[in-house]
Write a structure and sequence with these properties.
With 333 residues, the protein is an alpha/beta fold. The protein has two domains: 3-116 and 217-329, D-Maltodextrin-Binding Protein, domain 2 (3-Layer(aba) Sandwich); 122-212, Periplasmic binding protein-like II (D-Maltodextrin-Binding Protein, domain 2, 3-Layer(aba) Sandwich). It is built from 13 helices and twelve strands. A five-stranded mixed β-sheet has the order 3-2-4-11-5, sandwiched between helices. Helix 2 links the parallel strand 2 and strand 3. Helix 2 crosses helix 9 (233-252) and helix 10 (254-264) crosses helix 11. It is globular. The relative contact order is 0.21.
Length: 333
């Protein structure tokens, strides 16, 4: 049975109780609290809602100023940024958060974030004529253990009916490192960022468009430590509210959001706007979660070696979500 929670009166009551117990920073738009955020890849479209919120004042009007977007390298590296870097909140790979929670790390997923597979297509070198279809792929590059990209190297072959025996996986250490392995011929396919493809449009050929195999997938979740959430509930609530307002704003302001993304990266404006439009069409950004996206992610982490059931009711804490945000788990809590 699925659990549906539309953030509203019930969430408000729980949040009020949390605020009463916390002794951390109080939010005041006249004197915003400055925090740094770690993002799983700070040059890809994960950053767009953060850039929008910072530009439009959606965070500061709630009493929080985002100081720096600290880049991660996917998987557990971003989570380590959060835990060891004295950071407030991170947008972290969902599989990495699941693994950490199972190992007893005191983290909480307080909201969704990136819930499509935009930006995670696998490319071959155009010069590699032996790799034309997914059935031709033998070696797949992923970023780091516990990353979404690692889980996809299990889930996509299964969805395509290839089977695990024909697949070799290579941990590259990051997105850029994966591209380097691809260019060296060490792997058949890797994820190639928008910026790299824009500069080298004839170098890479799309082989595995992931969204054709999996429509919804919870790539990242808004994550904090349980101590920070308990001590700073107003800050967490403000960040989630600003993120959701940014996600909603993007749909009506594709060109403006694309311009912010272009300024943040070295993408040409036209390419940046196209990337934002494509991600928005997939309904990529939301502080909420859906069972469809979580089901796909659950299957992926299980194929990657996670044993047992994901403890959704312990892992997710919806009490900080803004009113009206849809929050649905695949289980009843």
């Amino acid at each position: 049975m699925r659990r549906t929670w539309i953030a509203g009166a019930a969430t408000t009551m729980l949040l009020a109780a949390g605020c009463a117990g916390g002794d951390g920073a109080a939010v005041d738009p006249a004197d915003p609290v400055t925090i740094d955020i770690t993002v799983t890849n700070a040059t890809e479209t994960y950053t767009v809602p953060w850039l929008v919120g910072m530009d439009q004042g959606f965070f500061t009007e709630r009493g929080v100023r985002i100081g720096e977007l600290v880049p991660g390298q996917g998987g557990s590296t971003t989570l380590r940024n959060l835990i060891s870097g004295d950071l407030a909140i991170g947008e972290v790979s969902y599989p990495a958060v699941v693994d950490a929670a199972a190992e007893g790390t005191p983290v909480a997923a307080v909201g969704g974030a990136f819930q499509s597979l935009y930006g995670n297509d696998f490319y071959a070198l155009s010069s590699n004529t032996a790799v034309q279809r997914i059935e031709d792929v033998r070696t797949w590059a992923f970023t780091n253990p516990g990353s979404v990209t690692e889980s996809l190297t299990h889930l996509i072959p299964e969805a395509a009916g290839i089977g695990d025996r024909a697949v070799e996986r290579v941990a590259a250490g990051g997105i850029g490192e994966g591209v380097a392995l691809l260019e060296s011929g060490a792997v058949d396919v890797a994820i190639v960022p928008d910026a790299v493809r824009a500069k080298n449009p004839d170098t890479f050929r799309l082989v595995v468009p992931t969204h054709t195999y999996i429509e919804r997938f919870q790539q990242t979740v808004l994550t904090t430590t349980t101590d920070y959430a308990e001590d700073n509930p107003e800050v967490v609530s403000a960040v989630l509210g600003g993120y959701q307002e940014s996600a909603d704003w993007i749909h009506g302001h594709i060109d403006e959001a694309g311009a912010l993304y272009a300024a943040h990266t070295d993408l040409p404006l036209e390419s940046a706007v196209a990337a934002v439009r494509s991600a928005a069409e997939l309904d990529t950004w939301s502080a909420g979660v859906s069972p469809e996206a979580l089901d796909s992610a659950q299957r992926a982490v299980q194929l990657a070696g996670f044993e047992g059931e994901i403890p959704y009711c312990d892992l997710f804490d919806p009490t900080f979500l803004p009113e009206g945000t849809q929050f649905r788990l695949p289980v009843t809590c």
